[in-house]
Amino acid sequence: MEETIDKKNVKFDNVIADAKIGKLTIEDGKTKYTLWMHKKDTSETVAYEMFKTISGDAIGKTFCVKVKEMDKSFSGREGKTIQYIDRTIISFVSTDPVEGSVPTIDTKTPVGGENAPTVGSAPSTTNPDGLYDRVDTLEEKVEYLLAQDTKINEKLKNVS
């Protein structure tokens, strides 16, 4: 399976936050992109740091982002192989929304070997009081996730 990094203009039609696994799902029409909040070492990803600067004003706007794409598959019902493309936003080219038409962008730069970026699974977080389930707006979701992130970082500091 070939892994590529591609610059794309992505319209943020919807942003779905999943605090339990620490990721945001960005919807652009029917296409979905993952934006991880944390690396394996629990530090914030570059993409998430940049997203926080635009989170309150992102919905409905288009941003130029770097996307890692990888062909993947899994066995579905009855053993049928389902193929899909896993898309992960690894950074923003700019946190300014793209205006006008889509510019020509150099695409499909193959990535591999030791220099290949890694996207780790985010550490698990808890939602003991169910507060996150009652949050409605994107700004409230991001604020809640940032508060959870702060709590986790404080606990990690106390452990070490």
How is this structure best described in words?
With 160 residues, the protein is an alpha+beta fold. It has a single domain (3-159), classed as Beta Barrel (OB fold (Dihydrolipoamide Acetyltransferase, E2P)), CATH 2.40.50. Helix content is 19%, strand content 34%. The strands form two sheets. It has a four-stranded antiparallel beta sheet. The radius of gyration is 17 Å and the shape is globular. Residues 101-135 have low confidence and may be disordered.
Give the key terms:
7 strands, 3-stranded antiparallel sheet, OB fold (Dihydrolipoamide Acetyltransferase, E2P), 160 residues
**Integer-rounded radius of gyration:** 17 Å
**Whole-number average pLDDT?**
75
What sequence of helices (H) and strands (E) makes up the elements? EEEEHEEEH
Quaternary state of the chains: single chain
Give a short summary of the structure.
This protein is α+β, with helices and mostly antiparallel strands and 160 residues long. The protein contains 2 helices and 7 strands.
